[in-house]
């Protein structure tokens, strides 16, 4: 309840509650009579007559709540006189809640959920019926009980308000979930929980006192108190008050959750961010070593990086003509500033570095103009930059995520102005660049960080977006005010890359030119040109012979190439190609010199010559046709196309393939006009577009116009001859009709006749018509591999062609025949859905099923009188019926939707999500023309509403249900069958609605069982598979029941046996694993090793699913178990070898990488006696395959309606890259440990392998931690190269200090934990142990409490009183958190009673307890990586000095020391270990205060082994660490 005042009496708070109830519901609370109370009981019982167990449970819960409220009312009424009895008011509120309108019959289930949630806690109050005298109840308890009852009344009011919220409520698929998602209901349930906790603490104290007085059993009370608090916590968990962040605070999952929230709120997928970085990485990998070193000589760059002097502009422009290497230089800047990467010597950092902590983000703008291009490129760029920064800075991620609001965070009844300011998904979707810059704090980094933002390819931005960014840059470039404390203009430094013409528009100086510092790359990159020429000549094997003549020629060629280059790498490539041609043609040195000294033509003239040279080729007719076909798709096509797609389009058009591949032609004949970019797309070379586009179709017609003129000259002919000539001529025309041989002349699709000389050129309208005809041709033909390759883009571009041709005017307008052709074929697409059915695989990109504007384009043609003037009767009648329908678009699409309905729910061939999503998209789209989704899907009698996509997350189950109802009507299904429910279950499963999926599978099971019971035969395999599906969708503890039912149906089924094996094997010992494997393979009377092959296939399939990361352990357990069975071990190895060979031959690279990873593990167990390849070879193969195939795939929006637009998950290759990298890095590290002094060359090779993995292995989350990086640092330390080890972690060290100084004590555990890891891998074991001991575990006893509350002699009396209370009132069995809460309650009570001179002592104690409570809520602990036991308060634990975050208890450490390896791949007996300090009460109390035992001596911190004596602050110790790491402690304010 939101109270606006602080009531001074119970009467006041009840009156406030009454007013709040009336405000929320518009209803007045009245006391409830005995008759009315019985009516409430009857209502609860009557509306819950179902025999369903959940309904029965809810009815019982509701009746017990009534009973408990009545009992509590008796206690609550002991307070001051009230106008209404508390119980009566509660019953009045409950009666309003139970008055559910008939239309909302589903709301009963939601109310049931409330009953079930709160009943367990309220039932605990039944203890009051045993109290002989309620007058003896403590007044504090009476007040607490009244507040609990008031919270119940307010909860009823909010639920009533939700119920009466309008039509949107009726669309909720799961009202229970929807109601708990309401922010107001969540808040009140949280309030209810807090009141319960407060009341129970008071009750516990009071009850214990009563128990002591009456000598009753103390244990019963302690158990009861713990049970009450546990149940109260369960309520909080169930209603979602505890966020996932709070539940997972012990791990870096917290930061990952922040990142996920940021991405989802901004609408940016992980793939988009990864793609941006991949562009930069690929660019950087193509550079020559030392590229960009000349930047160190540029004051503009050096000042920009260092931010010195203070007036330096934070914006730097990189300009230059195309091809001068601007993008390459930008990638070099990125790699040099990004201090997370561990660059090798070959590609080390060579540019000047910033002094502080640099957070670097990069984005490259792509050309626009295609359908799938980003429509808001500038906004997307800023969002991607934001996510990249958040990945690098935990404090920034936390700050940003907490500033965002979920869609449900804003109360529905909040003022409109408040909702408009809510920074949620909708806000950021509509935000402009300035809003994003401000709200995402791109120019306001945390603490000592600097944001380096690199924007490449800004030429590709539309003018308006360029101007928006220019306004932002103007703002950050403004100098600080005179009285400003800021030393620099902005916390961000921006590098913008583009042509000078575009960049000048960002801001013009008063004297002309740019007002920002500018570097002309083309004028400064001479050194890079030299290096590039050297490399390219070497790659082309030109002038590489080691003799004087070749050296002289090479020098001359290099000088000539550089002179002609004028800063352009493009010119260098072209000229080297020319030089290579001269050399291969065996021309003379003079020819070479002449070519290099020839005047270079400008780019436009060169293009003209290139086109002319192609047109002049002999027998060029087919070549020009092919070139024009390529040009029209590349230039005017609605999508980008790769080489394979264009080759397929040529085949569709000309129905023939060339003996020479298109790839070869693009590298040769067509290389002057077209090129393949780094994404594999074919694009036009610069200036080609303006030369090949023909302005008007009339221009082409004019060029094709044919005229015939005949001049007849008569010389020396007599009259008879002349007459005979004209007679024969007339006869030839009249009778033979001038039938010449060869017959006729016809023009092709480009407008040129076979006898005319063709030219290279395309017209836009002609191009769209040709592309449209190609699309229709594909659609009306049978599907082939070729059509499936290009079909998706062709069908998705259909509307684009229609729109352009529809708007063509004057000379470009289509003829009547062409218009009729378009309309006739377009109508056929919708009238005969079998065409789309045949090409279903190609329909994944079509947008006219969800975009009404695209349907409007369709209707533009189908309503064109000329276009539809000659339709046949059936088509004409059907079109008329659709046009006259109240919903024309839905009517037009109904045949298509009906086909999809059949394919979705009555057929198994297609996957279910796409047809379901397509039907829903159509229903939602057609609900926007004043008819709601409700009518479209045949809801009851609700009014029409329009569903917003922002609300789809909450109503997806409802949408699927209503779509299935529409299908049921469309398909005229009276009774659904087994297949119907099976397909619905698959649909729910595909969109992660697991409960609904199990429900539908259960219905399918019931149908099969009823069919069998009726005497009909069923396919028991279907029933078995259903149980397997239900098991896979269940939690681990419930899976086995389903699998056992499947096993009863088919004892020999391998999948069933595998599922049981997978459920049980991971938690077993090695011997037990062998027993489980043997059990799974024992079929009939004996062991069947051959069954390992299908089990292997099932494991690999589960692996590729990606949702179950435990499969790595499962696979290893199967291998481990099989290794102990002599009959199975050779068979498993043989099966793995065969599977590897098969996967490699079939190009299944995901299978191949998985199998190599685990075959390596198997090889490590068996040695070379059983396998021909070593474990290292297999792991290297896994790494290579995963790295080569870990390509970012674009997100698919096909099923976004059901599975979400940002449901990104890590690819299987990225997971395998992490796993293989971890195993390989440990292997290489252990190898170097064995060879430190024996083989220096081998050692260096191993180090390079570690460096390669540390550089290439994908970082997990934001921290950039990899095991390879940790092993590499440890290896440096072993070689006494501490500075190199520290260099690896310097960026991470600064990030840790930021966490520890971010004014959020709640994440200090993460900072100290990470610090401990860093210090461990840098060999500083002593300080690593100190860092571990600055994170207190959840522990409390009297000795610790005494140390914690030691506030000096003056407060000793208060301290002793609390300690006595702890000793007598806090049970040992209670958790430390419960004990502290009881202490807080007692301190609050004593503080109110204390004299004024003692109040400060109680305040200090209260502060200490609150800080300690915050520590306990973290519940941090160390766990043994072998036996998984937690480290106790005074127990010894060991930490590995080399393996990342690896700890063993004393027992497991002793086993490891004795070479009894506890787990495979978990550490090694050969590693160095160090003992962590053991806790004692003094050290524990110091850690809670942020201090540690030690002294400062001669500038060094000396930490005491004992906590006795002096203590220093953690901040002083952190300052000491800064000195050891050459970091400035003043940056973080350390002592």
Question: What would the keywords be for this entry?
Answer:
single chain; three-stranded antiparallel β-sheet; disordered N terminus; mainly alpha; 70 helices; five-stranded parallel β-sheet; 4% strand; 1535 residues
Describe this entry's structure for a reader.
It comes from Penicillium canariense. This is Fungal STAND N-terminal Goodbye domain-containing protein. InterPro entries: Goodbye_dom, NPHP3-like_N, P-loop_NTPase, TPR-like_helical_dom_sf. Keywords: Repeat. It holds the Pfam family Goodbye. A hairpin with a 2-residue loop joins strand 10 and strand 11. Among the domains are: 233 residues, no CATH class; 270 residues, no CATH class; 75 residues, no CATH class; 126 residues, no CATH class. The longest helix is centred in the first third of the chain and has 32 residues. Helix 52 crosses helix 54. It is built from 70 helices and 17 strands. It is 59% helix and 4% strand. The N terminus is likely disordered. It has a five-stranded parallel sheet, sandwiched between helices. Strands 13-12-14 form a three-stranded antiparallel sheet. The chain has a three-stranded antiparallel sheet with strand order 16-15-17. The chain is globular and about 145 Å long. The relative contact order is 0.05. By secondary structure, it is mainly alpha-helical.
